[in-house]
Amino acid sequence: MANPLEQPTPSRASEPALEVVGAAKRFGPVIAVQDLSLRIEPGQALALFGPSGCGKTTLLRVIAGLERPDAGRILIDGALADDSGRGPFMLPSRRGIAMVFQDFALWPHMRAKRHLDFVLRGRGLTRHERRERIARALDLCRLHDRRRAYPAELSGGEAQRLAIARALVVEPRILLLDEPFANLDVPLRECIIDELLRRKRDHTLTILLATHNREEAIRLAGRILYMNPPGAPPHTRHTFLAPSGAETPEPRHSPVPPNPV
User: Measured by CB atoms within 10 angstroms of the end CB, which terminus of the chain is less buried, N or C?
Assistant: First the structure.
């Protein structure tokens, strides 16, 4: 059974936690990602913001190792994870990444608590340590009373909270979030964002968030990458913005066009 949550690996001093250089991905004639570069330092966050079809989800899947790029390089803590879909390939389980999927990707035959216990197995934790982590994650996402429910018995909001809890319980170094708060009420969303910001401030978590919600992007991220669809002219394709909307310096290999928003 594939495990979408990954074993953390030590960070290398002075290296970015995540770097994407000239990434491209297409599905048949459809270009999903085109010549995209970004760089995130340890303990920082970047939000991917843009219309549907601009490649946000595909980029997250390429970074996680669930899709291989047709061109470009993916580096995790300075180590080469993928190079143009050829040659060296770092397995998803070696990347130190957890991902919250837009469609949740829950396992239908597992109760909620079992989801969390399953991803902690094989990580060198004692039973007591696993129980403590699971209890904290369930409490944070307000799922303690639903810990014995199967995914089919959960509401949309509860399923999304379980997907978030499953990602956070492994304490990843890099967290990929694909529209993670769409089904959450405001108080719970703010509570979870506060926890993510705390971990980010402690430099224990690096975050890449894909969202349509500008307020979420500004609240959580230090920078925003505005992604136009791949068919846009090269000089307007990707723009790095500060939370206020001002442009910020681009990473290596990535042109910064005028602000499109």
Answer: N
